[in-house]
Design brief:
The protein is α/β, with parallel strands linked by helices and 268 residues long. Helix content is 38%, strand content 23%. It contains 11 helices and 15 strands.
C-alpha cells in the first residue's frame, strides 16, 4: 500500500468530497485530486471508477468530468457561476476578434455576457442581443448602440424568444456573432436544450459573416437535445486551455478550428 494512502478518509467519505469538488469545478485531473486528498493516483482512479458506476462523473483521459443532465435547461443564476474563470478567459480571447465598427450579435449565454463586459472600449459598435443580461451590461457604454430583440421573455434565462424576436433577427445583418451552447461533439456538432433559444442562435449565425462559439472545456464530447449548427457554419470554437489534448486531437483530425484561451497567468 502506498504510504500516502494511510491515515486518510474512508473511501465513501473521500468519494463524496471528490464529487463535491467536481460540483464546483466540473472537471478534475487524477494527479490534481491525488494531491488534494493526499492519496495515490491509483486510489483516485478507483474512486472515479466508483463515481462513474453511480453515474455521477464521466472518466476521461487523465481525469474525469462531472456527469450532467443534457436534457435540463439551467437557469441564468446557475449558469453565471459555472466555469466563471474559464468564461472570462474565453471572453478575453473572443474580444481579439472584435473590430471597430462591428455589428455584433450576442446570444443569451453567460459566456456572451462575459464578452459584453469587455466591449466598453471598442469604437463604434452595434450590439444586437436577445439577452436582458447582456443588455444591462452594455446599455451605458457610450461607444456602442444597443438593439434588444423583443418577444416573449424567458424569466429563467432573462432572454427574449418567440416569433417577434425571431422576426427582428431575420431582418438584420451582422459582421460577427458570438454564442454558446450546452454541448459540443466532433460528429454531432454543437447542441443545446431549449429549442426556442436554439432558433435564436441559428438566426444569429445565419445572418452573420462570421460566427464564433464560446464553449468551455467541460462541455466537449457531450451531446444535448438538439443541434444548433454544424461546424461548417462557424469560423471557430473558442475554449479554455483545460481542454484535454486527446480530445483536441479529435477536432484537429476533422479540421475543426479550435482556439484555446491562455491560462489566467498569461491572460493577465
Amino acid at each position: 500500500m502506498n504510504n500516502s494512502d494511510q491515515n486518510v478518509l474512508l473511501p465513501a467519505e473521500r468519494q463524496k468530497d471528490i464529487y463535491q469538488y467536481m460540483m464546483r469545478h466540473n472537471s478534475a485531473k487524477v494527479n490534481e485530486l491525488a494531491q488534494i486528498f493526499k492519496v495515490s493516483d491509483m486510489t483516485i482512479r478507483r474512486d472515479l471508477e466508483e463515481l462513474e458506476k453511480r453515474k455521477l462523473v464521466v472518466r476521461t483521459h487523465g481525469g474525469a468530468i462531472l456527469a450532467e443532465d443534457m436534457t435540463r435547461d439551467l437557469n441564468v443564476e446557475e449558469r453565471e457561476v459555472q466555469q466563471l474563470d474559464k468564461k472570462k478567459r474565453m471572453a478575453a480571447k473572443a474580444k481579439e476578434f472584435v473590430e471597430e465598427g462591428d455589428l455584433l450579435a450576442l446570444d443569451a449565454s453567460t459566456s456572451a455576457a462575459e464578452l459584453a463586459k469587455l466591449l466598453y472600449d471598442v469604437p463604434n459598435l452595434t450590439v444586437v442581443t436577445n439577452s436582458l443580461l447582456v443588455a444591462n451590461i452594455v446599455q451605458s457604454y457610450e461607444n456602442l448602440t444597443l438593439v434588444l430583440c423583443g418577444g416573449i421573455m424567458r424569466k429563467e434565462a432573462r432572454s427574449f424568444i418567440g416569433p417577434l424576436a425571431e422576426l427582428s433577427l431575420s431582418k438584420l445583418n451582422f459582421t460577427k456573432a458570438f454564442f454558446s451552447c450546452n454541448a459540443i461533439h466532433p460528429v454531432k456538432g454543437m447542441t443545446d436544450t431549449n429549442v426556442f433559444e436554439i432558433t435564436m442562435k441559428q438566426l444569429m449565425i445565419k445572418r452573420s459573416k462570421q460566427a464564433y462559439a464560446l464553449i468551455d472545456s467541460s462541455k466537449f464530447n457531450k451531446v444535448a437535445f438538439s443541434q444548433v449548427c454544424p461546424f461548417a457554419d462557424i469560423a471557430a470554437v473558442i475554449t479554455d486551455d483545460g481542454l484535454d489534448e486527446e480530445i483536441n486531437d479529435q477536432y484537429r483530425q476533422r479540421e475543426i478550428p479550435v482556439i484555446l484561451a491562455p491560462p489566467a497567468t498569461e491572460s493577465g
